[in-house]
Design a protein that fits this description.
The protein is an alpha/beta fold. The protein has 7 helices and 17 strands. The chain is globular and about 50 Å long.
């Protein structure tokens, strides 16, 4: 069984200079005849990049959205203009209104669509109700991550509006995607707000397969020096052969990985991971 994961959009440009970039992420996964999209960036630009890369987005089986922040879900509206023939999967609480708080002001960071939009467009959708859901053989959505690594703390600037008041956002809606390969699991992360280590620990506790690769955002950009050091040590896992993190990982963390971990590569717009 071969697996190919293509990064349709990410913050940084790659060698293909016709591709456009933005603060966001989107992965296109091909495995065993199935096509899955994980996140949609913040606009429809990932669709233009898909055309450049000769990726057909009109025959998707599933679209999975990692959490309800604009830079991961914002391109869905544009996707529905070319196809609605897919099943959409989100975490519970995905449609809660999300904000960032800074200097006594709130800025909306959430989705640009709601359930009415999905119903109007005829999009079939579901919320991940179990901690582990197998979409197709060997492809898993995982959510409800136990918060066991005490150094992983969500920045209190992230808020969710509930019943007329702003509360700290626990990111209970966050999900990841894990794809089994002959080499082990490829894990795709959106932003890892519940904590990268918490999320990867959940994968290994639920699926009896080694971690082969991790791709996506780890939110180490906001980790303090101590927590960052713990995370760098964690990524020295001998089973882990490919570390393609970027997006919200932060330049400091990526620079440290580049100098200390030979399994790291800067996953960027146009990158592909292929396991034959």
């Amino acid at each position: 069984m071969s697996v190919k994961v293509t990064t349709l959009i990410e913050n940084s440009p790659g060698e293909h200079l016709a591709l456009k970039t933005e603060h966001g992420i989107s992965f296109f996964i091909e495995t065993d005849g199935h096509k899955i999209l994980f996140d949609t960036g913040q606009t429809g630009t990932f669709i233009d990049n898909a055309e450049q890369l000769r990726v057909d987005l009109t025959s998707l089986d599933y679209v999975v959205l990692s959490h309800g922040h604009y830079d991961h879900s914002g391109g869905l509206r544009s996707l529905t203009q070319i196809t609605t023939d897919f099943k959409l999967v989100m975490g519970q609480g995905f449609f809660e209104e999300k904000y960032g708080y800074k200097n006594n002001s709130y800025e909306y960071l959430g989705n640009n669509f709601d359930e009415k939009f999905l119903n109007d467009q005829g999009v079939e959708y579901q919320f991940a109700k179990q901690q582990l859901t197998e979409l197709v053989p060997g492809v898993y959505v995982i959510t409800a991550f136990p918060r066991i690594n005490k150094d992983e703390v969500i920045n209190p600037r992230f808020k969710v509006q509930r019943e007329g008041s702003f509360q700290p956002d626990p990111f209970d809606d966050e999900v990841l995607l894990a794809v089994d390969t002959p080499e082990g699991l490829i894990v795709m992360l959106g932003c890892s707000h519940p904590g990268m280590k918490n999320m990867l620990d959940a994968v290994t506790s639920l699926i009896n397969r080694p971690l082969y690769a991790i791709l996506g955002g780890t939110h180490l950009v906001e980790a303090n020096e101590s927590s960052l050091g713990i995370s760098m040590d964690y990524l020295q896992n001998d089973d882990l052969k490919v570390i393609g993190v970027s997006h919200c990982t932060g330049q400091i963390a990526m620079d440290q990985l580049a100098t200390s971990n030979k399994r790291y590569f800067h996953n960027r717009t146009g990158s592909s991971l292929i396991v034959a």
